[in-house]
Automatic annotation (TrEMBL):
InterPro entries registered for this protein in UniProt: CheY-like_superfamily, NreC/VraR/RcsB-like_REC, Sig_transdc_resp-reg_C-effctor, Sig_transdc_resp-reg_receiver, Tscrpt_reg_LuxR_C, WalR-like
SMART domains linked: HTH_LUXR, REC
Keyword terms of this UniProt record: DNA-binding, Phosphoprotein, Transcription, Transcription regulation
Matching PANTHER family: TRANSCRIPTIONAL REGULATORY PROTEIN NARL-RELATED, TWO-COMPONENT RESPONSE REGULATOR
Residues in Response regulatory domain copies: 4-122
Species in which this protein is naturally found: Streptomyces endocoffeicus
Top-level taxon of the source organism: Bacteria
Residues with PTM 4-aspartylphosphate: 55
Protein name: Response regulator transcription factor
Leader peptide range in chain numbering: none
Domain HTH luxR-type: 154-219
Amino acid sequence: MTIRVLLADDQALLRSAFRVLVDSEPDMEVVGEASDGAEAVEIARARGADVVLMDIRMPGTDGLAATRMITGDPQLKDVRVVMLTTFEVDEYVVDSLRAGASGFLGKGAEPDELLAAIRIAAAGEALLSPAATKGLIARFLAQGDGSGGEAAYDSSRLDALTVREREVLVQVGGGLSNDEIAARLEVSPLTVKTHVNRAMAKLSARDRAQLVVIAYETGLVRAGA
């Protein structure tokens, strides 16, 4: 299956570089380029992109707003967004994950990392491998409303989960892969995958990245734990 990629960045030179890289892969093709978020949403609807490489900061409709528009559109429910950011530490990254992005990647990433990110997102996995990602999620979600007080957690969302699904969600929130979770819980990777998929369905999570956010938002996983 060919992965259909949409490039959304206000820098034409950067889009051109990404196009050359993506089109050089036999399992990928660029289906469109956008210079702002609104245009990205229009192209995603018109051309059926699988993955959007979305710049987080663009004039007009920025990447965050565009991500919300994509993830909130039932017609685009299968589209995955990888947020591109100039800096690894960015307060908008967590907002992006909350909005439905599958993860983020620094613009300074190596070509192989970028291609791997596209494949990971297309497969429905979370691009949460950089250590900075887990730290960002923990730090910003732990801040709650930004008042500096203890974060207000709502664990009622987890009521539908079984005990084992909660255990698996804790490990997902810690950034572990299915194989790593299987080894820790002494079950098969297939069993872990089943629990992850059931948790995603019960919590209406688009992908693994959303599960990580939910794990922190509900207090199931705490910052520094």
